[in-house]
Amino acid sequence: MAHEKWQETELGSFVSLQRGHDLPDHQRKSGAIPILGSFGITGYHDKAKAKGPGVTVGRSGASFGTVSFSRIDYWPLNTALFVTNFHGNDERFAYYALRSIDFKRYNSGSAQPSLNRNYIRSLRIKVPPKAEQLAIANILGSLDDKIELNRQTNETLEAIARIQFRSWFVDFDPVRAKAEARQPFGMNVETAALFPDSFGDSPVGKIPQGWRVQELGNIADVNWGDTNVTKRSYIQTGFRAFSASGPDGFLPYFDYDRVGVVVSAIGAESGQSWLAVGKWSCIKNTIRFWATAPDISTEYLFQVTWGKHQWPLRGSAQPFISQGDARRMKVIVPASGLGTIYGNAVAPLHRRMHANNEESSTLASIRDALLPKLISGEIRIKDAEQIIGAKL
Question: Which secondary structure element, helix H or strand E, spans residue 152, and what is its range?
């Protein structure tokens, strides 16, 4: 039951909503201002149309009803409603209060889902005093802040792994340095000795002397994901599962306890890939593989096949990757076990990224469980703090 000082009011008295502004792609200019559409940030621009902190609600399309928050000035697109007046309420509390509303129940469209601000302004909501708004926003926000920090940390770790891969295996910096009688930068003598000092011909062009080109199927176990399992089998918590959209659910079991690569094999995301760590499964419309050759690592294969442009796509309206094409994919294999050395070097980074993802998943579950109860006044701040302490 909500505290007696909470007040019931209409949504239109809590916040004022307005339709966003048009901004066609050809009018967008490079900048740091986030553009918020129906499902959140869709790009960046050099000018803002709304002051931050700000809140948007997706008003059309498949993502209608999605609530997003911007700490800084932003551009709200016409596919979203945005708050023009918080009427003295805390901005972040308003974000969580709006997230607690199931806007999909108020679809005013027909074939195209749509949210009309005039249709929802009379919704009744309960609003606590400002001090309690701040406390609620703080406790939920602390969970979201940690999730965002984990995301940023993972971006940095992934960039480190990718930069090292590019230097060694795309730009061939150590080979070029040795060809010029220079010591490769940032590399110990033992590792530098494993790189050749010249290039040779190959089916894919010039590659370091002594390196070879192999088909992926000859150096990796390449197979489909579980074609009998779909997202309908997902549960609230469990072991990580990958679909053609990526790591987007959980199953009550796991198929693999190892490092592997999962590739989206059909649809708009075809060719996008993810490194799976720990206990995991992959379901229909995916291809999974891991290294089987002794002189290569799965982490190396993840990087060398990363990027949609690497994969042979078939179809037009519905792109897809055949298993045969995946197995015939040409891959450069470094000599002297350098692919394994690279994998050993970046494995700790990927393990940390995996741990961050698991922590974020736990935090998101706690946040989603607490949000409706805090917003409705069913539980108080002290109770929420005890729940968080017990689960972390």
Answer: helix 130-169
Q: Could you check whether 7-127 and 162-340 share the same CATH topology?
A: yes
What's the token pair of residue 52?
Answer: 């931050």
Contacts of 348 (CB under 8 A, 6+ apart): none
57 with 89: CB under 8 angstroms? no
CA 275 to chain centre: 13
Can you give the pLDDT of all 392 residues of the chain as single tens digits?
456 689 999 999 999 999 999 999 999 999 999 999 999 999 999 999 999 999 999 998 888 899 999 999 999 999 999 999 999 999 999 999 999 999 888 887 666 778 888 889 999 999 999 999 999 999 999 999 999 999 999 999 999 999 999 999 999 999 999 999 999 988 999 999 999 999 999 999 999 999 999 999 999 999 999 999 999 999 988 999 999 999 999 999 999 999 999 999 999 899 999 999 999 999 999 999 999 999 999 999 999 999 988 999 998 788 999 999 999 999 999 999 999 999 999 999 999 999 999 999 999 999 999 999 999 999 989 988 888 887 77
Q: Which of 219, 208, 135, 115 is nearest to 168 (CA)?
A: 208
* Residues contacting 145, CB < 8 A, separation 6+: none
- Tell whether domain 162-340 is in CATH 3.40.50.620: no
Altogether, the residues listed in the chain come to a count of: 392
| CA nearest to 78, candidates 55, 57, 105 | 57
> E strands within 30-149?
33-37, 40-45, 54-58, 67-70, 75-76, 80-85, 124-127
Name the token pair of 56: 């948007």
Per domain, the residue ranges of the chain are 7-127, 162-340
Contacts of 92 (CB under 8 A, 6+ apart): 53, 69, 137, 140, 141
DSSP 307: S
Rounded to an integer, what distance in angstroms lies between the CA atom of residue 39 and that of residue 319? 24
Q: Is residue 344 within 8 Å of residue 131, measured between CB atoms?
A: no
Q: How many CB atoms lie within 10 A of CB 5?
A: 10
Residue type at 248 in one-letter notation: D
| CATH among 3.90.25.10, 3.40.640.10, 3.90.220.20, 2.40.10.340 for 7-127 | 3.90.220.20
The pTM for the full model equals 0.89
